[in-house]
Structures are given as structure tokens and as C-alpha cells.
Amino acid sequence: MIVNAGRARSLRAQLPPLARAFHHSRTAQASDFVRIVEVGPRDGLQNEPSPVSLETKIELINKLGDAGLPAIEAGSFVSPKWVPQMAGTSEVLTQMKHFPNTKYPVLVPNMKGLSSLLDLLAAQPANTSEPLTDEIAIFVAASESFSRANINCSIAESLDRLAPVTRAAIDKGLRVRGYVSTVITCPFEGPIDPHRVKDVARKLVEMGCYEISLGDTVGTGTPKTTRDMIDAVSSAVDVSMLAAHYHDTYGMGVANVLTAVAAGIRTIDSSVAGLGGCPYSPGATGNVATEDVVHALHGIGMTTGIEMGKLVETGAWISNILSRPNASRAGTAWLASQKRLEKDKAKL
Length: 348
Description:
Elements: H1 5-13, H2 17-28, E1 35-38, H3 40-44, H4 54-66, E2 71-72, E3 75-76, H5 89-95, E4 106-107, H6 111-122, E5 135-141, H7 144-151, H8 155-171, E6 175-181, E7 185-186, E8 190-191, H9 194-207, E9 211-216, H10 223-234, E10 242-246, H11 253-262, E11 267-270, H12 290-299, H13 308-321, H14 329-347
Parallel strand pairs: 1-2, 1-11, 3-4, 4-5, 5-6, 6-9, 9-10, 10-11
Antiparallel strand pairs: 7-8
């Protein structure tokens, strides 16, 4: 049966909102694979109040790699004076296990950080089959107040500072990923105009970033505000170049992930056991838990290549090491279910 464009729009309009959203995503992007970028070892650990040992960082990354995570943020080349938990990133990169087909991006805030990374890569033996990393991440904010509080400069100044970093990284064969923080709300300014996010994202693409991660730093986003922001940004940047990064402060992380997937986004940032927070956003909790995201995505028929059992075990392990509650509801439920099954088997 042939249906003209007007009739097709009419039929879509009759669908329930969520069904209509997923209909759009399936037609916009045929792929059912969602790439998960695990940010726990960097964005998650950097806010921990107690020191995290080098051995723990390495084991966490190795466990995540063994669980099948396709991309794992391994650390940050930032001054330990400002982010003590990121000390030792060079040692992490050289001592951890590198899984085939897994990316290990690192955050690089400035030219000094890039120089440190390039020195490390130059010292790598020439006969090494895989580089320690082939990707960096840079970050800017969509809020002037947040930018000044976080890095003590305006948005325009931060972009000017990052332009030569991006060019130098690309010249050395590194891919560059751009983060935009406070895409929904700023802790100082309140709601952010989605078109401000669009303008910053477009400038990062023009600078040479291959992907733009849109971060709800405060965690106030809802499916509506999330979709409005994505629609605005995707009017200037192709949705295939966008990633979603949500904090779970108000319990909307998974709902916003599904909204992003419905909008056509196929890269999601998340943190095992819901690790994370933001020192410049009072009350902001951790990133949406990777276990919760994978559970939800698998439940709607998407694939991730991640082994849920190993992921859940990793979340429980790091929560125990850090002496903190496991923030993943899917993870704790999965573990409880496994214990119940084991108990039932023991009775037989």
C-alpha cells in the first residue's frame, strides 16, 4: 500500500507520544545498537571524597572492559591540585589491560594536558600494536555563570583556548570528543535556552570534534526538556554526531536516555553504580547508572554488546571498595534476584 507523506504524518500523529517517538527514531536511524561510553573511572571517581588507589582505578577499568563496554573514559590529564582523584592517569593507561575494539578516551582540559598525553604516547614502544589511547575529550558549558565557576573564563574564551588544543590533537591523529555541560539547567542561572546549547555544539563541530556529548549536569531534565534541547541542537548538528549524558538527581536519567534514543541518538554516557556528581552543582547526584541504562535499552529491543552479569558484579564491587551505596536500582535488583535463585537451588 502506498501512503502519501501527508497521510503518513497523520498516522504518526495518532500514535501515543512514546510510540510516536520510537517510530521516529527507527525511521531516522535503522541501527538498534547503542554505544555506551562508560564515564565511571573519570567522571565518577573524580568526585569521591577519599583517595582512590591506582590499583582500584586499573581494576575497575579492566572489569568494565571484560564486561564488554566499548568505550571507557580512563582518566584526565588535569592538574592533581584541582582534581586529586585524577592523579596517575599516565600510570593507569600504561598498566591497565587494553581490550580489542575498546576505546579509552581521556579528558584533556588545556594544551598542557595535551602535551603530557602526547609525551606519554611518544614514549610508547614503536612495536606496540594498539596506542594507549587515540581519543581525547574537551569540555565547555552552555552557561556563562557555570563556565566562570568551573574554569574561570567565559564560554567564548573557553572555546578560543580549546581551538588550538583540538587542532594539535587532530594533527597527531587523535579523535576529539566535545562535552557541553549544563544543557538543561544551570545551578546559578536556572533554565538554559536550548539554542544556546545548539550554538556551542555547532562551534565544537566546526572546531573538529567528531561527537558532541550533551550533559544535563544538574540532573533536572525531563523527557520534554530533553527532547526540546535535542531538537534544537539537531537542527544545526546531525543527530548521528550527538551523545547523551545525564545525571540522575531527580530520578529522570533513564527516562531521558530513552527520550534521547527515541530522538535518534545512539551514544549514551553512563557511570557504573551511578558514580559521580558535580562539585559546582550543589545537590547533583551521580551519572545515570550504566546497569540501569543497559537494562532499559535491552528491554526495548536495543543491543549494547555488554554482558549484564559482569557489569552488575563490577558495580557491586566498586561500591563496596568505595564504601558507598550502589546507586543502580537495576544492579541491586539483579543481585537480589541472583541470590534468591542461588538460595532456591541450595534447597533442592
